[in-house]
Write a structure and sequence with these properties.
4 helices; mainly alpha; fatty-acyl-CoA binding; Acyl-CoA-binding_sf; Acyl-CoA Binding Protein; lipid-binding
Length: 88
């Protein structure tokens, strides 16, 4: 099973940008669902954004791709309820 492109797209068309913690959760679950356990070195000390993303992904280490996918979809659904979606 793979993440549906529609679900990933829905996370980008919310009426309001999710908070930092919500974005970190989305990123971590997405990477775990699509790649699996973190497979790159942690970025350098001055790469604050890269380190934050790496940390969010690494927090999901050991979670199956299927569980990460389900968690990602759950977070997206909660964010849609919280923020609503842009109409196109």
């Amino acid at each position: 099973q793979t993440l549906k492109p529609q679900t990933a797209h829905e996370a980008t068309v919310l009426k309001q940008r999710p908070g930092k913690d919500e974005m970190s959760a989305l990123y971590g679950f997405y990477k775990q669902a699509t790649v699996g356990d973190v497979n790159i070195d942690r970025p350098g000390f001055l790469d604050f954004i890269g380190r934050g993303k790496w940390d969010a992904w690494n927090e999901k280490k050991g979670m199956s791709k299927e569980d990460a996918m389900a968690a990602y979809v759950d977070v997206v659904e909660k964010l849609k309820e919280k923020y609503g979606m842009e109409t196109q």
